[in-house]
């Protein structure tokens, strides 16, 4: 493998930052988890989501991406299944009963498995992985090159997703009443569904 220069990697670092920090289903799940369960409880979700997205990037780069690029109908079908499931989650959240927020130390906070599993049906993550293959790495690159890009992505994604967890803990202080938490749930539901559909339609 040829050594990659800083100038070659910098555009990818910026891409990974934007892909990780902008709102999407994963970010919103982390935000909501931190609001209800606290920062420490949501950290496994952050780790699982980052590792899951990185693993998907590797799988797509090492062969699956080439197949999907040759079969756009399959790619579109997978995206529609993912966005339909996320839309169902949004509907459930929009209609969830509201109560004042207290940090739930023993509740069922989504964990690392949930975070990693979400990446399999997250259209934003699939589009990110396909973009890495087609724009940054290129067809025919070896496993070592994809491994390097995946490691960089993981190092960028972890702090970006942690920022969303910190935002959630800050928001929890403002959600003391049932009315406030209902507005929060409904706003998060609309953002969740919008972010998923934007990933498919853009």
Automatic annotation (TrEMBL):
Membrane topology, record value: Multi-pass membrane protein
InterPro entries: LeuE-type (IPR001123)
This protein's record includes keyword Acyltransferase: no
Keyword terms, alphabetized: Cell membrane, Membrane, Transmembrane, Transmembrane helix
TM region(s), chain numbering: 12-31, 38-61, 73-91, 148-168, 180-200
Taxonomic superkingdom: Bacteria
An example molecular function term from Gene Ontology annotations: amino acid transmembrane transporter activity
GO CC annotation: plasma membrane
Record-linked Pfam families: LysE (PF01810)
Acyltransferase listed as a keyword: no
Entry's localization field: Cell membrane
A GO biological process held by the record: cysteine export across plasma membrane
PANTHER family named among the record's database cross-references: ARGININE EXPORTER PROTEIN ARGO, ARGININE EXPORTER PROTEIN ARGO-RELATED
Protein name: Cysteine/O-acetylserine efflux protein
UniProt lineage: Bacteria, Pseudomonadati, Pseudomonadota, Betaproteobacteria, Burkholderiales
């Amino acid at each position: 493998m040829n050594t990659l220069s800083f100038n070659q990697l910098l555009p990818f670092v910026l891409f990974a930052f934007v892909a990780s920090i902008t709102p999407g289903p994963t970010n919103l799940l982390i935000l909501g988890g931190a609001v209800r369960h606290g920062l420490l409880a949501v950290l496994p979700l952050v780790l699982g989501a980052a590792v899951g997205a990185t693993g998907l990037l590797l799988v797509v780069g090492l062969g699956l991406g080439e197949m999907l690029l040759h079969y756009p109908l399959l790619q579109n079908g997978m995206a529609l299944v993912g966005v339909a499931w996320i839309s169902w989650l949004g509907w459930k959240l929009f209609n969830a009963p509201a109560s004042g927020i207290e940090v739930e130390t023993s509740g069922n906070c989504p964990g690392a498995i949930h975070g990693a599993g979400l990446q399999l049906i997250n259209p934003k993550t699939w589009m990110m992985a396909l973009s890495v293959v087609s724009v940054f790495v290129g067809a025919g690159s070896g496993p070592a090159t994809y491994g390097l890009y995946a490691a960089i992505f993981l190092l960028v994604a972890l702090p970006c997703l942690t920022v969303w967890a910190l935002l959630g803990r800050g928001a929890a202080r403002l959600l003391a009443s049932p009315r406030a938490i209902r507005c929060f749930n409904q706003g998060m539901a609309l953002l969740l569904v919008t972010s998923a559909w934007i990933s498919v339609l853009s």
